[in-house]
Amino acid sequence: MTPNRLKKLWAEGKPTINGWCSIGNSFVAEIMANQGYDSVTIDAQHGALDYSHMLSMLQAMLASGTVPMVRVPWMEPGIIMKALDAGAYGIICPMVSTAAQAAEFVSYMRYPPLGQRSYGPTRVSFSAGSNYASEANDEILAFAMIETAQGMAELKEIAATPGLDGIYVGPADLTLGLTKGRLPAGFDREEPEIIVALQEIASVCSASGIRAGLHCATPEYAQRAVGWGFDMTTVANDVRLLSSSAGASVRKFRSLLAQPVTIGKNAAY
Predict the structure, then answer these.
(1) Cα 237 to chain center, whole Å?
(2) How far is the C-alpha of 243 from the C-alpha of 57, rounded, in Å?
(3) Sign for the pseudo-dihedral over CA of 101, 104, 105, 106
(4) Could you tell me if 41 and 57 are in contact, meaning their C-beta atoms sit under 8 angstroms apart?
(5) Rounded distance, CA 118 to CA 50, Å?
(6) CA torsion, points 97, 72, 233, 1, in degrees to nearest 10?
(7) Active site (annotated) includes residue 53
């Protein structure tokens, strides 16, 4: 089986950058995967895509060598196992609020005797190389998302779950959960209470020997997160990158159009 490159980078003490795909299109996934990200996650929870999109996107990403991951819609064994069989090297599971839920999630990720994953590596037996079934338990990453007040209250117990590789933070839902809607959803939080929570997550993960991931909007905030101890940061996603780049191009064009254009000694508008 092809080794999981993220594990190698983390073992070397290197933080990793994760790309994010919310558009259900294989060409978009191929473009994202070829930009130098260490991993790219397909968002099957909030992304505009379904299983058939996810499968073709995983296929399109293969040639790049980036580590393919999937955020599943929910902690449901069927979609978790189908995403793994399709070729995902890591699963991010949303809304894990208790240690019992974390243990249940991990069980869906591992073949017996470590879990209850059903055998049937349809595509991944080709995309990941030979001997997949014997090596997958050691290579596939299980990330639980901490997004609720209860999840924060049980943070240490969740992080201590055997077989859990990391905790991934969705700051929008975490903010809603911790403040009971007092603060609006969003990324790159500056509120002291949220920053303290993020730093606590990174610290607990480190103490538990697992990895911490954070969804960010900008490279600058991701750099700060690495300083807090996060091992993996996601910077924006395909939707935001496309809209921001397109918007900036249009604004630049209209700005230039409003300026005088000098042709020889004459000025034209």
Answers:
(1) 10
(2) 20
(3) positive
(4) no
(5) 21
(6) 120
(7) no
Of 14, 27, 35, 46, which is the active-site residue? Answer: 46
**pLDDT band for position 45 (50/70/90)?**
very high
Contact assessment for residue 197 and residue 179, using Cβ atoms and an 8 Å cutoff = no
Question: What domains can be seen in the chain, in order of their start residue?
Answer: 5-236 (3.20.20.60)
Contacts of 113 (CB under 8 A, 6+ apart): none
Hey, what amino acid is at 220? Answer: E
**Do β-strands 211-216 and 90-93 pair in parallel, antiparallel, or remain unpaired?**
unpaired
For residue 30, give the nearest of 43, 40, 38 by alpha carbon. Answer: 40
Please tell me the pTM assigned to this model.
Answer: 0.94
Please give the sequence-ordered ranges of beta strands (E in DSSP) within 34-185, or none if there are none.
39-43, 67-71, 90-93, 141-146, 166-169
CA angle 154–4–201, rounded 5-degree value: 20
| pLDDT 10s digits, 195-246 | 999 999 999 999 999 999 999 999 999 999 999 999 999 999 999 999 999 9
**C-alpha to C-alpha distance for 86 and 110, rounded to whole angstroms:** 15
pLDDT grade for 263, boundaries at 50, 70 and 90 = low
Phi and psi at residue 6, in whole multiples of 5°?
-60, -40
How is residue 140 written in tokens? 């596939």
> By C-alpha distance, which of 138, 133, 196, 166 is closest to 16?
166
Per-residue pLDDT tens digits for 117-143: 999 999 999 999 999 999 999 999 999
Residue with structure tokens 């991951």?
A: 69
Q: Which long-range contacts (C-beta less than 8 Å, at least 24 apart) are formed by 118-124?
A: 118/81, 120/81, 120/85, 121/84, 121/85, 122/85, 122/86, 123/55, 123/58, 123/59, 123/85, 123/86, 123/87, 124/84, 124/85, 124/86, 124/87, 124/88
